[in-house]
Write a structure and sequence with these properties.
- The protein is built from 19 helices and 21 strands.
- It has helices spanning about 5-20, 35-45, 55-75, 80-95, 100-120, 125-150, 160-180, 210, 350-360, 365-380, 395-405, 410-425, 480-500, 500-515, 530-555, 560-575, 585-595, 600-610, 620-635, and strands spanning about 205, 220-225, 235-240, 240, 245-250, 255-260, 265, 275-280, 290, 295-300, 305-310, 315, 325-330, 335, 385, 405-410, 430-435, 440, 445-450, 455-460, 465-470.
- The protein is elongated and about 115 Å long.
- The mean pLDDT is about 85.
Length: about 650
């Protein structure tokens, strides 16, 4: 067996296993059996004896036992257990590669592994592995064909492999673009684990932001249709009730929005005034829709959205999946509201905080001035730090922050300001979202990370919710340029492959059809049926003529050897034998023998193979013999006719 064929089989087996391992979802302990793949293929390359059927059967039964334990106890997930078992199977199979059929089993198992991996990851790395797998698989199938025909080593495989790979890529791309897209999944649920985050549910424990502020995981990427000056506050969900330990969203009214046209309209807006944000949200474990305030419309591939009475937007059934949506925000828009009891609620034991608020705002004459005074006081007199210490027994976290440590992060600042405002009778709430983002110069978009999670304050001044941010500014670290370049590649992958949607399909169809739009077509009129018949016949005649010319030209482009071979194939069909275009020379010889064309057909096909694949020039004498054989086959009688 050629070393090239062996090598491709080994690499395909490894490619399938690697595609699963890069997902990060595999349990390495259960996959330990897959390490035997290295020993198995080492023996395979050294032409050592393969494992006996008995040993292979015992190992297969052991793998089945592990699979049952995996699915029921270790991971408790049948899907992941199947993925683990395929890795073990590749290890066992590497000791049992005897027949060509065994190689096909390895290819099939590798393909199954890639299909499973596609359910576990959407990473760009998987796309690279998929392309490598496809090229190797096509090469292996071509080699397998020539190996079966016994012509491997006598033919050049570079051209057929290149042509078939290009054709496969083209067909895959067409199939990918034509596959119907819907907002809902047809099969099962996604096994992609969402990014664990905090602050975007109806209940948020105080201090939980401290952990994610150190996490550099990308949460979303944002493209905007125009430059918007900083700061950028990506509004999420508002919290209104605080018990000293947790914040809650007690919004009582949630309205279900249905699509109007192609978007969910939250409030009437002027398209010339809004800022459009195209947001690629990673699979986080929250159903909140983020955007710049004031959000007036959302375009997302779903059936409905929910909007609460604090202007928070959620997408029911989003689960932990990556989504792309567009938000239109009126930057000059106002979030209106009315004073409610819940926006004045304070926990017990905050008398000292209220006293501090009165002291800080002593010289202020309006609610707006009082809010600015508290914001400025917190910014100037407190330090930003993620290293906080728990309060002593009997002291609340806010008193610990305001009167003892005077260091904290956004939750401390926002919560303190809200309680101080409420102590003065000013309705207010904490808003959780993201702040800022890094500009990626390669793709001209913003990258927002977990560490950008932020809490700020909205206070009701008059009937308008105004934003205040009492947290001091912190210098951000600029990541290396290479990081941004790789991230721009990931965005393109997410945008044009993972996030390819029905809207993209419609846009492609519209683009392809636009050159053929004839504005005057509806005005065309035919004077009579005779005219229609005349033009139909003329069109049919021209089509037939073009077909005949193209067929002749296609036939002429072949060499003399191939052209004569095609004539022989047509001759067999004419004699009533069943011949298809996919048949090889070996297949035609078997058909010829059945039809009584044994000796002449065998000599003819031997000449064809030796000069078609053997890189030998056909001499004049051999050409005459080659042609004479075809003529004799055409005029001779079949054995059963004698």
């Amino acid at each position: 067996m050629p070393i090239l064929y062996k090598s491709i089989t080994a690499v395909l087996a490894l490619t399938g296993c690697i595609s699963l391992l890069i997902t990060g979802e595999m349990n390495l302990l259960v996959c330990t059996g897959g390490l035997s793949i290295f020993g198995g293929y080492y023996r395979f390359f050294r032409d050592r004896p393969q494992a006996s059927k008995r040993v292979a059967a015992i190992l297969a039964q052991a793998a089945l036992f592990v699979f049952i334990a995996d699915a029921s106890v270790i991971t408790g997930d049948v899907f992941l257990a199947v993925a683990h078992m395929t890795i073990t199977f590749q290890g066992i199979k590497s000791f049992d590669l005897k027949e060509p059929w065994d190689h096909l089993q390895v290819y099939f198992m590798s393909l199954l592994q890639l299909i499973i991996a596609s359910e576990l990851t959407r990473a760009l790395t998987f796309g690279v592995i998929f392309v490598i797998f496809m090229v190797l698989l096509v090469t292996a199938m071509v080699l397998s064909h020539f190996l079966k025909e016994g012509t491997l080593g006598r033919v050049r495989i570079r051209r057929p492999v290149t042509a078939i790979v290009m054709l496969t890529v083209l067909c895959t791309a067409i199939f990918f673009m034509a596959l119907p897209r819907t907002p809902q999944r047809f099969i099962g649920k996604s096994h992609i684990r969402g990014i664990k985050t905090v602050g975007f549910s109806d209940k948020v424990d105080f201090g939980s932001f401290g952990d994610i502020k150190l996490d550099q995981t990308v949460v979303m990427r944002i493209e905007m249709d125009q430059e918007v000056s900083s700061p950028h506050y990506w509004r999420g969900i508002a919290m209104d009730s605080f018990d000293g330990v947790s914040w809650r969203n007690t919004a009582r009214e949630k309205s279900r929005l249905l699509k109007t046209g192609d978007e969910f309209v939250i409030a009437p807006y002027d398209r010339t005034r809004v800022v459009e944000q195209r947001i690629y949200l990673e699979p986080i474990d929250s159903d909140v829709i983020f955007g710049l305030a004031k959000m007036t419309a959302v375009n997302v591939d779903t059936f409905s959205l929910l909007v609460d009475d604090a202007s928070g937007i959620t997408m029911p059934g989003k689960l932990s999946r990556r989504i792309k949506y567009t938000v239109r925000s009126d930057m000059a828009g106002i979030l209106t509201g009315r004073s409610e009891k819940r926006y004045l609620q304070v926990p017990r034991g905050v008398e000292n905080i209220i006293g501090l608020a009165k002291s800080v705002t002593g010289g202020s004459s309006s609610d707006l001035q009082r809010a600015f005074a508290i914001e400025a006081y917190l910014k100037r007199n407190f330090a930003y730090s993620l290293a906080t210490v728990p309060p002593p027994v009997g002291m609340s976290v806010l008193e610990n922050f305001l009167f003892r440590t005077k260091t904290g992060f956004c939750e401390h600042y926002a919560s303190s300001m809200v309680i101080m405002l409420r102590g003065l009778g000013i309705p207010s709430r904490v808003v959780n979202g993201f702040y800022g983002g890094e500009r990626n110069e390669y793709g001209n978009y913003l990258i927002v990370r977990q560490s950008d999670a932020h809490a700020w304050v909205e206070a009701l001044i008059g009937n308008e919710w105004k934003r205040f941010d009492p947290t001091p500014a912190v210098a951000a670290q600029k990541p290396p340029a290479l990081s941004h370049f790789l991230d721009s590649l990931r965005l393109q992958w997410t945008r044009y492959v993972v996030g390819f949607s029905s809207e993209d399909q419609k846009e492609i169809v519209r683009t392809l059809a636009s050159p053929f739009t004839l504005k005057g077509l509806p005005k065309l009129r035919f004077s009579s049926f005779r005219t229609v018949l005349f033009w139909s016949l003329a069109l049919g005649f021209v089509s037939l003529l073009l077909y005949a010319v193209m067929k002749k030209l296609r036939f002429r482009r072949y060499s003399f050897v191939t052209r004569t071979y095609l004539e022989f194939r047509a001759l067999l069909r004419k004699k009533g034998l069943k011949v298809t275009d996919a048949m090889t020379a070996g297949d035609l010889l078997r058909v010829s023998r059945k039809g009584g064309f044994g000796i002449e057909a065998e000599e003819f096909l031997n000449l064809y193979e030796s000069h078609r694949f053997g890189s030998r020039e056909m001499t004049d004498h051999v050409r005459q013999r080659y042609k004479a054989l075809l003529k004799k086959l055409g005029t001779g009688k079949r054995a059963e006719d004698i």
